[in-house]
């Protein structure tokens, strides 16, 4: 069995970014005279990019002009404030260090806008080498489309069937299925573990240490 190529989601998988996203979104909504949301509510908005975040946060039926404004205002605010409400999940730095030491190729694939994705990865994990980092880019289909996984596989000269798409959402699992990758769900993120389990991932990791054990077992069998 070949050594796996590990593709990580960012928000809810590597980074606990909910506090920063919620704070920034609420500042924009309040400035525009709209109701703000609890972190628990914003958690349900995350996963489909900034435009869908804005759409879900606004009252139902809001027109495209208002959605455009909230999306852009959120991006401007979040770009300068995300550092204050974002940190790696406990155990993630150690996991990534172990995987790096094992020489495994790693990538990040997120629906967060590409500039935020690259900045956050650099800021949170300055000593970790990700071979490819991809966020949402204009004109490129985002998760659950297979394009990101397939691009990473080509750039790393890997077989998509030997890639692990590791994430905390059903969208990540669908992305894996659509691209032919292995679907690896993590239980410490923003989506309920029972919902993830109902989508029959290939693996389900309850903690970063559990994920590391799964990788080691795969390497031992290769």
Overview of this structure, please?
With 222 residues, the protein is α/β, with parallel strands linked by helices. The chain has two domains: 5-16 and 86-221, Rossmann fold (3-Layer(aba) Sandwich), CATH 3.40.50.1000; 18-85, Putative phosphatase, domain 2 (DNA polymerase, domain 1, Orthogonal Bundle), CATH 1.10.150.240. Helix content is 47%, strand content 15%. It is built from ten helices and eight strands. The protein has helices spanning 18-31, 39-43, 50-57, 64-81, 92-101, 114-124, 147-155, 170-179, 193-198, 208-221; strands spanning 5-8, 15-16, 87-88, 106-113, 132-136, 163-167, 182-186, 203-205. The strands form two sheets. Strands 5-4-1-6-7-8 form a six-stranded parallel β-sheet, with helices on both faces. Strand 6, helix 8 and strand 7 form a beta-alpha-beta unit. Helix 3 (50-57) crosses helix 4. The longest helix is centred in the N-terminal third of the chain and has 18 residues, at 64-81. The chain is globular. It starts with a strand and ends with a helix.
CATH architecture of the largest domain: 3-Layer(aba) Sandwich
Mean pLDDT: 95
In helices, the fraction of residues equals: 40-55%
How would a crystallographer describe the biggest sheet? Answer: 6 strands, parallel
Order of helices and strands: EEHHHHEHEHEHEHEHEH
Distance between the termini: 4 Å
Using the CA coordinates, give the radius of gyration: 17 Å
Output the structural class.
Answer: alpha/beta
CATH topology of the largest domain: Rossmann fold
Corresponding CATH superfamily of the largest domain: HAD superfamily/HAD-like
Report the principal-axis shape.
globular
Strand content: 15-25%
User: What would CATH call the class of the largest domain?
Assistant: Alpha Beta
In the residues, how many domains can be counted? 2
